[in-house]
């Protein structure tokens, strides 16, 4: 069953995409175009069932609408999932077939990279589609969007540290990062540069070894499941979603949770469990917006410094959300949703349904 944390589950559009010759099976979900065309990445993942894929794309696309609203972007929320193993099933033919489906939406949905897809994949999709961002530098794109994603999460961490400890720094704190792939490895560098001790874990030994080579001072936990209960000050989930559930939250020893994974809360009510335990939770769709900001800037002709300056504002937005949560006596998730919904309602009523020009 899909959880929407009190949000309306209504979506403007849901598109099933099938191309038998290439093996393409995909779902595109457009949650809202109240603020502009729906921008969101394409996730390539071997879902166990189509229902699992549908639940994921509905949740992810809804979160993208809230993420864009909180980031102050004139964009709506969308997402796509391709069902399959990217290492085995990803081909030029499949990506180009998918590109044709995106093109058929006339610009209501703009795609980008996500788990299992990369900038070179966007270049292939762009051979059939005008509505693609997150492309390679040599093709006019911004390149790796994980750079500003990690930078934005770090800004969220600083805001949480200020709220919890009175100073916007991780210096002297022990930070645990679960998942050191595209985003997590950049986050490790930010935390270390700020003076934190860092402990990492990942199911991929290759990802761990890369971090060890770059940062030999980092501690590594061999058991990925052990980090949740480790003696750390800040827990940063940066792998797939659902890391915080009825089993893991009681094990948490960290006083702050702030990470890059989408949909970290397994179901409605987890935000209350964190609040009751005195754990400060930074909503994922608030702090991980740096990548969205980066690929959105690409639509204007990418300027890294301009995009980085906008991603730096995640610090101020996180401070605002945490202050509102404390003022109104609600979890930060509720406060973040209220801010996003306010902007979508106030601006969206002027625009309503986005149509291509």
Automatic annotation (TrEMBL):
<dbReference type="Pfam" id="PF02812">
    <property type="entry name" value="ELFV_dehydrog_N"/>
</dbReference>
<dbReference type="InterPro" id="IPR046346">
    <property type="entry name" value="Aminoacid_DH-like_N_sf"/>
</dbReference>
<dbReference type="GO" id="GO:0006520">
    <property type="term" value="P:amino acid metabolic process"/>
</dbReference>
<feature type="binding site">
    <location>
        <begin position="179"/>
        <end position="184"/>
    </location>
    <ligand>
        <name>NAD(+)</name>
    </ligand>
</feature>
<dbReference type="Pfam" id="PF00208">
    <property type="entry name" value="ELFV_dehydrog"/>
</dbReference>
<feature type="domain" description="Glutamate/phenylalanine/leucine/valine/L-tryptophan dehydrogenase C-terminal">
    <location>
        <begin position="143"/>
        <end position="352"/>
    </location>
</feature>
<dbReference type="GO" id="GO:0043837">
    <property type="term" value="F:valine dehydrogenase (NAD+) activity"/>
</dbReference>
<dbReference type="InterPro" id="IPR016211">
    <property type="entry name" value="Glu/Phe/Leu/Val/Trp_DH_bac/arc"/>
</dbReference>
<dbReference type="InterPro" id="IPR006096">
    <property type="entry name" value="Glu/Leu/Phe/Val/Trp_DH_C"/>
</dbReference>
<dbReference type="InterPro" id="IPR006095">
    <property type="entry name" value="Glu/Leu/Phe/Val/Trp_DH"/>
</dbReference>
<keyword id="KW-0560">Oxidoreductase</keyword>
<feature type="active site" description="Proton donor/acceptor">
    <location>
        <position position="79"/>
    </location>
</feature>
<dbReference type="InterPro" id="IPR033524">
    <property type="entry name" value="Glu/Leu/Phe/Val_DH_AS"/>
</dbReference>
<keyword id="KW-0520">NAD</keyword>
<dbReference type="InterPro" id="IPR006097">
    <property type="entry name" value="Glu/Leu/Phe/Val/Trp_DH_dimer"/>
</dbReference>
<protein>
    <submittedName>
        <fullName>Valine dehydrogenase (NAD+)</fullName>
        <ecNumber>1.4.1.23</ecNumber>
    </submittedName>
</protein>
<keyword id="KW-0547">Nucleotide-binding</keyword>
<dbReference type="GO" id="GO:0000166">
    <property type="term" value="F:nucleotide binding"/>
</dbReference>
<dbReference type="InterPro" id="IPR036291">
    <property type="entry name" value="NAD(P)-bd_dom_sf"/>
</dbReference>
<comment type="similarity">
    <text>Belongs to the Glu/Leu/Phe/Val dehydrogenases family.</text>
</comment>
């Amino acid at each position: 069953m899909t959880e929407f944390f009190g949000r309306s589950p209504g979506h403007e559009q849901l598109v099933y995409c099938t191309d038998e010759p290439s093996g393409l099976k995909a779902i595109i979900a457009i949650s809202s175009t109240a603020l502009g065309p729906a921008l969101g990445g394409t996730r390539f993942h071997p879902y166990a069932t189509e229902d699992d894929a549908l639940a994921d794309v509905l949740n992810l696309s809804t979160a993208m609408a809230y993420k864009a609203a909180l980031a102050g972007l004139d964009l709506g929320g969308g997402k796509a999932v391709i069902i399959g193993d990217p290492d085995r099933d990803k081909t030029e033919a499949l990506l180009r077939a998918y590109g044709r489906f995106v093109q058929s939406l006339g610009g209501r949905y703009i795609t980008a990279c996500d788990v299992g897809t990369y900038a070179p994949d966007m270049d292939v999709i762009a051979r059939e589609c005008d509505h693609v961002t997150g492309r390679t530098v040599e093709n006019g794109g911004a390149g790796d969007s994980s750079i500003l994603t990690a930078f934005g999460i770090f800004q969220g961490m600083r805001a949480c540290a200020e709220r919890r400890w009175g100073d916007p720094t991780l210096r002297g704190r022990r930070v645990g990062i679960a998942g050191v792939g595209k985003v997590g490895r950049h986050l490790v560098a930010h935390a270390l540069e700020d003076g934190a001790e860092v402990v990492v874990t990942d199911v991929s030994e290759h990802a761990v070894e890369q971090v060890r080579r770059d940062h030999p001072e980092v501690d590594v936990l061999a058991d990925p499941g052990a980090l949740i209960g480790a003696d750390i000050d800040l827990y940063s989930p940066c792998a797939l979603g659902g890391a915080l559930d009825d089993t893991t939250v009681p094990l948490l020893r960290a006083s702050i949770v702030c990470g890059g994974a989408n949909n970290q809360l397994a179901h409605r009510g987890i935000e209350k469990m964190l609040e009751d335990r005195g754990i400060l939770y930074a909503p994922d769709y608030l702090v991980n917006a740096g990548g969205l900001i980066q690929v959105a800037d690409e639509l204007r002709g990418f300027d890294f410094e301009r995009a980085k300056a906008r991603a730096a504002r995640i610090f101020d937005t996180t401070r605002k959300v945490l202050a509102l949560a404390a003022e109104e006596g609600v979890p930060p998730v509720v406060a973040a949703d209220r801010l996003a919904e306010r902007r979508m309602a106030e601006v969206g009523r002027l625009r309503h349904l986005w149509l291509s020009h």
